[in-house]
Amino acid sequence: MNFEYKGKQDAEYSACTVDADVVTIGGETFDLGSLQTDEQKIIDVKENSRYLANIFIPPAEYDYIETGETDIDGNKIFEKTRKPVNQEKVKIILWEKKPINNNTEGGI
Predict the structure, then answer these.
(1) Which of 17, 37, 56, 63 is positioned for an S-S bond with 91, CB 3.0–4.6 A?
(2) pTM score of the predicted model
């Protein structure tokens, strides 16, 4: 997985753990395999109105395995099988934790 940090070098970031295809950020768990589709998917991880992270899941990749059978025209039949998530193509951007601004200037 590729990690990118947005913020100051010594800033505080949400805890992020990776266990196989499962990513946990700020207490939320994401199963990349079940979230992956045929198109790139971007998941925004928020706490209240603050961004904690963005997870970029690449499109699914497939293997085509010969079944040993043929169709009525004599063409080989293949079975489409989804590959596991290619973790080298997953990108996680962690955002610097900033306090929520409760400033009511200009309010009522």
Answers:
(1) 56
(2) 0.81
Calpha distance 94→103 (Å, rounded) = 25
Distance CA 6, CA 75 (A): 52
Q: Is residue 102 part of a domain?
A: no
Could you tell me if residue 90 is inside a domain? yes
Q: Residue 45 is part of which domain span?
A: 2-95
pLDDT in tens, 67-102: 999 999 999 999 999 999 999 999 999 999 876 665
Number of domains, the chain: 1
- Residue 41 confidence class, pLDDT cut points 50, 70, 90: very high
Rounded to whole angstroms, how far apart are CA atoms 14 and 75? 53
The CA-to-CA distance between both ends of the chain, in Å, stands at 47
